[in-house]
Amino acid sequence: MGFAWYRHPGLVVGGAIALALMAIAALGFVWTPFDPTRLALPDRLQGPSALHWLGTDHLGRDTVARLMVGAGNSLKVGLLSVALGLVAGTALGTWAASRNGSLLDEAVMRTNDFVLAFPAVLTAVMMVHLIGPGAANAILAIAVFNVPVFARLARSAALQVRSRDFVLAARAAGLTETRIAIAHILPNMAGLLVVQATIQFAIAILAEAGLSYLGLGTQPPAPSWGRMLYEARTYMQTQPWLAIFPGAAIALTVLGFNLLGDGLRDLVDPRARRART
Amino acid sequence: MTGPLLVAEALVRRYPVGRGGLFTPAARVAAVDGVDFTVEPGVSLGIVGESGSGKSTLARLAMALERPDAGRILFRGEDLNALSASDLRRRRRHFQMVFQDPYGSLDPRLTVERIVAEPLTVAEPGFDRRARRERVLAILEAVGLPTAALHRYPHEFSGGQRQRVAIARALITEPALVVADEPVSALDVSVQAQVLNLLMDLKERRGLTYLFISHDLAVVEHVADRVMVMLRGRVVESGPAAVLFARPVHPYTRALVDALPDFDADPADHAAGAFRLGEPGAAEAGACPLADRCPRAKARCRAEMPMLRALADDRHVACFEPLG
């Protein structure tokens, strides 16, 4: 009954990218080849070399060091914004499902539709304009458009789980509704939520890069991939690697988490599972 | 303990059909339409009827998992739906339920130990882990499951074994009443008999009383002391199991009894002598629920709803043209 890795190339590749990224970010916390914020104007705009593996930027800062710390920054923003959206959205969706068809359910879900009607990054940009730029506000803004995604998923999953007999059996055993939700409903929808969280994670990282590019996210001198892209735009013709490396980092990360999410979805989807066994 | 265990008084439960308009409520159909019954301690009641007759709704009403639109359900004299939510939860240890589908009624993410112990965590929250495990092991043994089942998950068991797990769960709080809604109909025929025998055995040894629901007369005949036959949400005949099966008075009961295979009779004779119903048509309001397919139906049957009346031998029937 072993797990056949070769049947899930996307899952394997995506998982490897995600793991590698986490390892790089973790290393970035304790060690980088250079201080990522140290200015060295004589060394500015160097191409890749033995000393600066991926070159230096317009202020002479080492690109490898900035990418490593930027990875940690991206992961932190992704993790916190998705976690916030997941917790709030799941609570809302499960709550709405427990009052299926009520006015409250309608109100929650129509508000969801309203938020979902706006493009995610646009919502985040508007939010940050309202509450002010900064890494913490970027996390909050990205979390806001994650909430309805999880609320909608959690509601439909909770409705499905609630219709199963074991929920009725738990009620017959005398459990309170809160305990039924925690002990039976949440664990049975956890798989779906984890899959969605992985995909939202990729979107969140992209959104953070976008916000930082616009100067609304992580503030300088803290390194972030989006900010690096922004600073590289003047040198696109002469020093293209300045844009290529952070751009590739963003693309690879988003690709990795999307592959991971799709692979996990195949694993969790009961129809796919039945087809394999 | 004196007095009846469970009493249903004029229970009505209606469900909406369709959605209705903005100002007009959805039309509603009565799944259970004025049902009375009494379950005395030690006298198991079987409820028989075809699908759609309201049996399962009745089971959920009896378990206070749904509220009736009218009528009351009394457990040991207390109106369950008049109790506060926490009082009702506290009473639940005394009446437990076995569900039809052992694939759906056990949470796939929990071990057998947690599934079986769950009602106990409500009934006796003070129990420590070890005492709880002792109780689980004792009840697993009583339903014929090995100790090794403790740490396994529902999907590792067959349908019959899962239903044993469900029975163990229902019995762990030592209830007086067990409501069993089609407990064997989802199982292979070869396994049905084993589970039925287990239920009968447990009834003897633990002094249980069942409210046993089935579409299968042969199954009810085994378990029930009294039988109630339902049709389209109403009771058409009730009485002691032996009398009812030997001499059914209502045409619907007769048709059910005649549909049972008789291994002593010549199959041809059995089929020729059988009482048969016509094809079901549309149910009409204010008519006998069987009027559309009863060969004995007269004009009155189509114009008036027959009420349940008492017969001499401790039974009741709702029919204008009962069989002699």
UniProtKB/TrEMBL annotation, chain A:
<feature type="transmembrane region" description="Helical">
    <location>
        <begin position="12"/>
        <end position="34"/>
    </location>
</feature>
<keyword id="KW-1133">Transmembrane helix</keyword>
<dbReference type="InterPro" id="IPR050366">
    <property type="entry name" value="BP-dependent_transpt_permease"/>
</dbReference>
<feature type="transmembrane region" description="Helical">
    <location>
        <begin position="114"/>
        <end position="132"/>
    </location>
</feature>
<protein>
    <submittedName>
        <fullName>Peptide ABC transporter permease</fullName>
    </submittedName>
</protein>
<dbReference type="GO" id="GO:0005886">
    <property type="term" value="C:plasma membrane"/>
</dbReference>
<keyword id="KW-0813">Transport</keyword>
<feature type="transmembrane region" description="Helical">
    <location>
        <begin position="77"/>
        <end position="98"/>
    </location>
</feature>
<dbReference type="Pfam" id="PF00528">
    <property type="entry name" value="BPD_transp_1"/>
</dbReference>
<dbReference type="InterPro" id="IPR035906">
    <property type="entry name" value="MetI-like_sf"/>
</dbReference>
<keyword id="KW-1003">Cell membrane</keyword>
<feature type="domain" description="ABC transmembrane type-1">
    <location>
        <begin position="71"/>
        <end position="261"/>
    </location>
</feature>
<dbReference type="InterPro" id="IPR000515">
    <property type="entry name" value="MetI-like"/>
</dbReference>
<feature type="transmembrane region" description="Helical">
    <location>
        <begin position="189"/>
        <end position="216"/>
    </location>
</feature>
<comment type="similarity">
    <text>Belongs to the binding-protein-dependent transport system permease family.</text>
</comment>
<keyword id="KW-0472">Membrane</keyword>
<dbReference type="GO" id="GO:0055085">
    <property type="term" value="P:transmembrane transport"/>
</dbReference>
<keyword id="KW-0812">Transmembrane</keyword>
<feature type="transmembrane region" description="Helical">
    <location>
        <begin position="241"/>
        <end position="261"/>
    </location>
</feature>
